[in-house]
Amino acid sequence: MSDSKATSPASSLPLDPQTALVHSSYRAPEGFEAFPVGIHHASTVLFPNVAAMRSRDWREKLGYTYGLHGTPTSFVLEARLAEIEGGTYCRVTPSGLAAIAMVNFAFLKSGDDVLLPDNVYGPSKDLGQWLERDFQITARFYDPMIGAGLADLIQPNTRLVWTEAPGSVSMEVPDIPALCRAAHEKGVLVAIDNTWAAGIAFKAFEHGVDIVMQAVTKYQSGGSDVLMGAVIVRDQALNEKLELAHMRLGFGVGMDDVYMVLRSLSSMRLRFEAHDAAARKVAAWLKQRPEIVAVLHPAFEDCPGHAHWKRDFTGAGGLFSVIFDSRYSEEQTDRFVDSLQLFKIGYSWGGAHSLCVPYRMRGMRRQWQREGVLVRFNIGLEAPADLIADIEQALGKL
């Protein structure tokens, strides 16, 4: 190795060439500005001195302490997600389910009770059952259309009520203001999974909700390539509990993923409206088919809770379900799904590609009474006429 030495502005000492590789003397000039948000990666965050290290609080987004708690990249995304929802504080998480878990662990402890709608996102239901089994937190499931009747289910130890609008498979739209009034009269918090409306078509805080959860995986990403969640609140005291849960659970996110979501946000409303328009065309066509006995689309009058949707929502996005006539067996409807060419079989939604998934509802819902197989469609950004033609040829295979 050469004995030649270099110097660095970081050190007044002469440096070995190997050390100089680690401590570069170059600093980019100030004053750069562009539309994209810069990608700031970090595990270690540097402090100018010990006093700064000791005085900086990771819970206040006034400075940086460790990559787990965020960099300028994630702070920008959290601020923008809060703006979209009409909230004040936001924390992003590694997935939508992680966001749900963070809310539960922030506000529930052993001996508490949580209420969840019977049509809640499946993994959220599983999480509730796990809390009951292993953490002594009772998790009870209520009829999502109960409205003000929720008051009769609230116990002295009930701390949290989850809502979802609409149910992510069966598509009922609950009366969110009535549920919130019933919970708040008993001093209970209300959290909502607002993923279906993306914070665009339903303003949850304006309808009484305390905590908004989003699966940023869906419309915010739009590319079927990022897993991320977010929790948004307006109240500082609620945010402080969420910040502690976020830290204790170690819910960091990768800044490359954060950047991909930031890159997609500017087109989210346009994409959401395109999904919505196409879905209504496909759903209206399906409603005329003799093979289908029900189209579960909140914008259609015969969908459960349509009146609530019409009163409280401004759009519908691309997700809806249908129920096949009971004369068709599960084997036949599976053949229908397998015969689709443009629609792919897969979970999630909100991306450019259309998806289709059949569900066994009696295993998912305790009080499911409808006959016939339920199939859920996510309408992507393909031409609606092509999607209709694909469904028509697959129906011919029944």
TrEMBL record:
Domain of life assignment: Bacteria
GO molecular function: cysteine-S-conjugate beta-lyase activity; pyridoxal phosphate binding
NCBIfam families registered for this protein in UniProt: cysta_beta_ly_B (TIGR01324), PRK07050.1 (NF005456)
Organism, as annotated: Herbaspirillum aquaticum
Family (UniProt): Belongs to the trans-sulfuration enzymes family.
Keyword Transcription part of the UniProt annotation: no
Reactions accelerated catalytically: L,L-cystathionine + H2O = L-homocysteine + pyruvate + NH4(+)
Family matches, as SUPFAM superfamilies: PLP-dependent transferases (SSF53383)
Modified residues (N6-(pyridoxal phosphate)lysine): K218
Record key words, sorted: Lyase, Pyridoxal phosphate
UniProt name for this protein: Cystathionine beta-lyase
GO terms of biological process kind: L-cysteine catabolic process to pyruvate; transsulfuration
Entry keyword Endoplasmic reticulum: no
